[in-house]
Design goal:
The structure holds two protein chains of two kinds. Chain A is of the alpha/beta class. Chain A has five domains: 108 residues, Glutaredoxin (3-Layer(aba) Sandwich); 211 residues, NADH-ubiquinone oxidoreductase 51kDa subunit (Rossmann fold), CATH 3.40.50.11540; 84 residues, Ubiquitin-like (UB roll), CATH 3.10.20.600; 87 residues, de novo design (two linked rop proteins) (Up-down Bundle), CATH 1.20.1440.230; 59 residues, Alpha-Beta Plaits. Chain A has 23 helices and 18 strands. The longest helix of chain A has 27 residues. In chain A, 56% of the residues are buried. Chain B folds into two domains: 59 residues, Arc Repressor Mutant, subunit A (Orthogonal Bundle), CATH 1.10.10; 88 residues, Glutaredoxin, CATH 3.40.30. Chain B is built from seven helices and four strands, in the order ααααβααβββα. In chain B, helix 1 crosses helix 3, helix 2 runs antiparallel to helix 3 and helix 3 packs across helix 4. Classes of the chains: A alpha/beta, B alpha+beta. At the A-B interface, helix 2, strand 8, strand 10, strand 14 and helix 16 of A face helix 2, helix 4, helix 5, helix 6 and helix 7 of B. The complex binds flavin mononucleotide and FE2/S2 (inorganic) cluster. The site of flavin mononucleotide has 21 residues of chain A, from strand 9 and helix 19.
């Protein structure tokens, strides 16, 4: 076959796929009878979507109701999970949440004509119009999203397990066109460079430039790798794409393979995301069956295959060189760079590694062009990125915002800090990222420079807002313990330095802080930075932020032996403050270490038994209170 | 090559389709653990033979990843979320309360009767339910989230699991 005929074949094959898919998708958007979709994703399932779905099935069957049941991915408002969507034949879709099993009858009523039966649960209109219910796009949580979602365009509107829905809503079209028109690999790479798409794994390196490195490799045996290890606690942006729109990632990787000359790719997904593993694996098989992956994609002669690798719980495998070791049948220890992956990657062959969201942006650039891509964002950082929000906020969930979105607006979208408290700290970029004080919030937006100005990092999508009742010193023990546990163990600077850092923080929160600890921590900081990989190099950054931005709080712990928020175990104690609290007997009973002594009207807590777990204050908040430990004699300063 | 035993033959059959230099090591270890609940020394040797690795390399990898166990798990394992959102809501108190209730010194241990273990878990992005633990049952590979915990509820959950009473509506 000549190249012009392969192009015609590819065009025809795709047109056939598309025609069928568009019909399926149109029927999904305008069903013959009302359809109730239950969000099925990790978050909804944790909130009980399985039981909700079972209850809806039961009610619909009992009443012989003229409805169908379907599935989608939650729209982003995770605090309202389990989310349920009703779509009527006229194409109107309304989102409801939280829908508990006992709400099933009203949801079925609502779907079958008694409109208003579930009015109290309505969270917004997804498509069409419904008098009295505002569009979900007007919900304050989404106030900062662009008018049209990009990466999230299918989320909540399609069945994530349907290839037809993906194609029917515009997916793979750019692949079909690329093969039909014989676009050249260098043209594809140039489009990404023109768009200035940058890596979303946290370093924001230009993706097109990286693809150029692999395209220039001296051998044909080369690989594409997707980093879906997403290890930063509090970040789950990749999970949303993997579970909610897996074909978007696959399409992006097809472009990656085409543009770099790689013929096989690995998608390395963390073990904590079993549903993502399942959905991506299924999507790969669907794409293979449709001829969109495989030995001869759409009859064009272009070969590209994909497979999923499931991780096994190692944060450091998120570092691209650790990831490469892990795929290559070795323990997931990071390697020293250079050589870079484009020279020596999977099994020491040239390889390109990108984050899920980096690949997932490629189809949009290819579909709509670099100018369209750059219409969102700032002069320096173009496009949008996904963020997940958690912590002391009433609205936890995910959203897509243009680069340059002010952080105060994002906190407002999340409903501010719970209980009317102030923002104490913002954690971004995971354990290797930053901890910034609430006071700098007005100067922050979602750009690298805004965060760098304070020694912080924008990171890869996770944002944790902490109230002013959070102790930053106590939080550091979590970070120190994490980076120590996840050290690969090669560099003494890293595994031992982080061990020392953890010990120092443990001692401080136990009430044994010393004046020289600041000096100790600073010395640990400069030493760990000499580790070979970025895990070590970046592991002291949160501690550094803390010493710089939270100095008075830190000093209170060390010099004054006081934890202002009464969090640190060694600086706080529990005491019975109101003997008349009728719930005290319950507190006595719940104590897991039997620390209460006395009798009714005369309870006391043995301080050396108490482990400060707080179970007693949970049940008797009036009777038992935390209070500062009495001041100790100051230690003699050393050195 | 060590003598072929029935146990070794079983493991060999389980991973018969896996190949050297193909990125199959993690797949092999996951399969073994899924089947047996842990990865025995014997299984590591068979994996090594199948993938043309040294047994020491397989041992190195097995011990590197926190998900792989070298000992059989407890009947029920409570995975305590160590993540930030859970941490902000008395996560450490919840951890310590469960350790004390179960009579364990640190995470990673299990009760002497093998009924309950407590291990560290990682945030999976369901922080709207923080603070939480996952209750994993070895027998049927099921996993249940128990969210919006308090230390008091954690004590009740741990007591129920420890004593074998109904833990479902704690
Ligand atoms: C310890 C460590 C963990 C990392 N974890 C991740 C991760 O989970 N996901 C990710 O995409 N990048 C992670 N990175 C960054 C990767 O090394 C790499 O920069 C990224 O995958 C490149 O993709 P991108 O250019 O598309 O951002 C991590 C880096 C380090 C040092
Ligand atoms: S921090 Fe525990 S689920 Fe996210």
């Amino acid at each position: 076959m000549t190249s012009s005929t392969t192009g015609v074949v590819a065009g025809e094959r795709f047109a056939a796929l598309r025609e069928h898919a568009e019909a399926v998708y149109a029927a999904w958007r305008h069903p013959e009878r009302p359809r109730i979709d239950v969000a099925i994703d990790t978050s909804s399932l944790a909130s009980g979507a399985g039981a909700t779905r079972a209850a809806l099935e039961r009610v619909a069957a009992d009443r012989n109701a003229a409805v169908d049941l379907g599935r989608n991915h939650g729209y982003g408002m995770q605090w309202l999970q389990p989310l349920v969507t009703i779509t009527w034949p006229d194409g109107t879709s309304v989102l409801y949440g939280p829908v508990r099993p006992e709400d099933a009858p009203s949801i079925v009523d609502e779907a079958t004509g008694r409109v208003g039966a579930a009015a109290a649960l309505a969270s917004g209109v997804l498509a069409g119009d419904r008098p009295g219910i505002p569009s979900v796009r007007e919900h304050p949580f989404f106030a900062n999203e662009p008018r049209e979602r990009r990466l999230l365009r299918n989320i909540g509107l399609t069945d994530p397990e349907s290839l037809e829905h993906y194609i029917g809503s515009g997916g793979y079209r750019a692949v079909g066109r690329m093969l039909e028109r014989h676009q050249q690999p260098e043209q594809v790479r140039q489009l990404l460079i023109d768009a200035a798409l940058t890596g979303r794994g946290g370093a924001y390196f230009p993706t097109g430039v990286k693809w150029n490195f692999l395209a220039g490799a001296p051998t044909d045996e080369r690989y594409l790798v997707c980093n879906a290890d997403e290890g930063d606690p509090g970040a789950w942006v990749n999970r949303v794409i993997l579970e909610g729109d897996p074909h978007l990632l696959i399409e992006g990787m097809v472009f990656g393979g085409f543009a770099t000359g790689a013929r096989h790719g690995f998608i390395y997904i963390r073990d904590e995301y079993p549903l993502a593993v399942e959905r991506v694996d299924q999507a790969i098989r669907q794409a293979e069956a449709a001829g969109l992956l495989g030995e001869d994609i759409l009859g064009s002669g272009f070969r590209f295959t994909l497979e999923v690798i499931r991780g096994a719980g190692a944060y450091v495998c998120g570092d691209e060189t650790g990831l490469l070791s892990s795929i290559s049948d070795m323990r997931g220890q990071p390697r020293i760079k250079p050589p870079f992956p484009a020279v020596s990657g999977v099994f020491f062959k040239p390889t390109n590694v990108n984050n899920v969201e980096s690949y997932s942006n490629a189809p949009f650039v290819l579909r709509n062009g670099p100018e369209w891509y750059q219409a969102e964002g700032t002069e320096e950082m173009h496009g949008t990125r996904l963020f997940t929000f958690s912590g002391d906020i009433p609205r936890a969930g995910f959203m897509e915002v243009p680069f340059g979105t002010p952080l105060p607006a994002l906190l407002e979208a999340c409903g501010g800090i719970s209980g009317g408290r102030g923002l104490g700290a913002l954690q971004s970029g995971g354990p290797l990222g930053s901890l910034l004080p609430g006071a700098v919030l007005p100067t922050l937006d979602t750009t690298l420079n805004a965060f760098r100005a304070h020694g912080g990092s924008l990171g890869s999508g996770g944002m944790i807002f902490m109230s002013d009742e959070t102790c930053p010193v106590h939080f550091n023990e979590f970070i120190a313990d994490f980076v120590e546990e996840e050290s690969c163990g090669r560099c003494t600077t890293c595994h031992h330095g982080n061990q020392r850092m953890t010990e120092v923080f443990r001692r401080i929160i136990d009430g044994g802080g010393r004046r020289e600890d600041r000096h100790n921590l600073e010395m640990i900081d400069t030493t760990i930075q000499n580790s070979n990989c970025q895990h070590g190099q970046l592991s002291p950054t949160v501690m550094r932020n803390t010493l710089r931005h939270f100095a008075p709080t830190y000093d209170a712990h060390v010099a004054g032996h006081a934890c202002p928020t009464l969090t640190c175990e060694g600086l706080t104690r529990f005491r019975v403050v109101d003997q008349s609290d009728p719930r005290l007997p319950e507190a006595v009973d719940i104590c897991p270490v039997d620390a209460f002594r006395g009798a009714e009207g005369d309870w006391e807590i043995l301080d050396d038994r108490c482990i400060r777990c707080g179970a007693c204050t949970d049940v008797a908040p009036r009777g038992v209170a935390r209070e500062p430990v009495p001041a100790r004699p100051a230690l003699v300063p050393v050195g | 090559m060590p003598l072929e035993t029935e146990a070794r033959a079983q493991v060999r059959a389980l991973i018969a389709d896996l190949k050297p230099n193909d990125g199959d090591l993690l797949i092999a270890l996951h399969r073994v653990q899924h089947r047996y609940g842990y990865i025995s020394r014997e299984a590591m040797e068979v994996v090594a033979e199948q993938l043309d690795l040294f047994a020491a390399e397989v041992y190195g990898a097995t011990t590197f990843y926190s998900e792989f166990r070298l000992e059989p798990p407890a009947a029920t394992t409570v995975r305590w979320c160590s993540g930030p959102a859970c941490r902000l809501r008395n996560g450490t108190g919840i951890r310590d309360a469960m350790l004390a209730t179960l009579g364990l010194q640190t995470l990673g241990e299990q009760t002497a009767d093998g009924r309950v273990g407590l291990t560290v878990g990682q945030c999976n992005g369901t922080c709207e339910l923080a603070p939480q633990v996952w209750v994993d049952r070895t027998e049927d590979h099921s996993s249940r989230v128990v969210g919006q915990l308090t230390a008091a509820r954690a004590v009740r959950l741990a007591r129920a699991l420890r004593d074998g009473t109904d833990a479902d509506d704690v």
